[in-house]
Design goal:
CATH topology: Rossmann fold
Order of helices and strands: EHEHHEHEHHE
Oligomer: single chain
CATH class: Alpha Beta
Number of helices: 6
Distance between the termini: 29 Å
Structural class: alpha/beta
Number of domains: 1
Shape: globular
Strand content: 15-25%
Helix content: 40-55%
Length: about 160
């Protein structure tokens, strides 16, 4: 039976790369909130970014249920930074009888900062379409992120 995989991890921890590896080994569709937001608003949705992002994630939850209903795995690539967001997504799928797994990508602080620097350089060169992570975005992220508690993740990926 098809399933939904929630990819959890810090900003720039390798979620998209991991999702691509999962897709390569299984029949799956990756649904990325960042890709949807960037295609609709470019790199800055302004003061309404969080509101639009919440709408995008809501749409992608529904789309994931449809994808799974068609017999294809859905990989949700958007971080699930808070316990509440993870619980809400799991409940959404559980209430519809859809199998759901949480995969948590954990990276050390030095590696995380290195990945941010590399991605920022790629964004500045136009090599990737992603958000530039400045100090303000890092501070916002750090104030929001709640790592999964022991036993919360179905799969732990340590890099």
């Amino acid at each position: 039976m098809a399933r939904v995989i929630l990819i959890c991890g810090r900003l720039c921890c390798g979620k998209t790369t991991y999702a691509e590896k999962l897709r390569g080994g299984d029949r799956a569709v990756i649904l990325s909130a960042d890709e949807l937001m960037l295609s609709m608003f470019g790199p800055d949705a302004g003061a309404d970014h969080d509101k639009y992002s919440a709408r995008a994630r809501s749409y992608l939850l529904s789309l994931a249920a449809s994808v799974v209903g068609a017999g294809v795995d859905a990989i949700l690539d958007w971080g699930f930074w808070t316990r509440r967001s993870r619980d809400e997504a799991r409940e959404y799928f559980r209430s519809r009888g859809i199998p759901c797994e949480l995969h948590y990508i954990s990276v050390g602080e030095d590696e995380w900062r290195s990945r941010i620097s590399h991605r920022n350089a790629d964004v500045e060169r136009g090599a990737v379409r992603a958000y530039f992570v400045d100090e303000g975005l890092m501070a916002k992220f750090c104030s929001l992120f709640e790592p999964p508690e022991d036993g919360e993740a179905d799969v732990l990926v340590e890099e």
